[in-house]
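Problem 12. The chain below contains 227 residues. Write out its predicted structure in token notation.
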Amino acid sequence: MSLLLNIDTAVDKAIISISKDGEILQEAVNNEQKDHGSFLQPAIQSISKKVGIHLNELDAIAVVAGPGSYTGLRVGMATTKGLCYALNKPLITISSLHVLAWQAIQQLSVTQNDIPTLYCPMIDARRMEVFTAIYNEHLTTVLEPCALIVEKNIFANQLLKSKMVFVGNGAAKWQQLCNHENATFFEAETNALYMSELSYAKYLQKTFADIAYTEPMYVKEFYNNSI
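Solution.
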């Protein structure tokens, strides 16, 4: 059995949850990005009380490490590392792009004439830029996380060979330019379940991060969608 605290402050909506073996026991949501810092500690105390556990009963603490909002990532990472130090618990880091891709993989089944399907999460990085990556149906990396300027032919080669599912709050920019028959656009709200499944898998594999040296994955130097 595993009890994990999951913290996601990477984008507009912050979600924290306590999960048992990958299933959500309790969660709290904050929709005001500027308030993520003040939201976290009271919300953590509240959901732990509702579940009926003390924080020292947790087996590990997981955080979405990025990419995403610069401020949000720092708030989430600082809170998580502080709790890990104080409680002497292992740290698990999860990619925000992995969470989006995993949600699409679990909710969609896109097949046509045996053409492989690729999953492309996109996080808004202001103007016409997005944080993105490409994964296959097993969440194996096809394109490493990067920042891209959205323009008409950015995925022309991939779309000739594969169906592609685009997901995330940055996908709307690409949807305005893309009318390829192999492209599917999937709207996905931030959801605690998919992070909890990924953090549980890492817990079982004992894939823990170094608390002292782990930093947010910014991809580029600064992003804040409130500007």
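Discussion. The radius of gyration is 18 Å. Students who got a different answer should revisit the alignment rule from Section 12.3.
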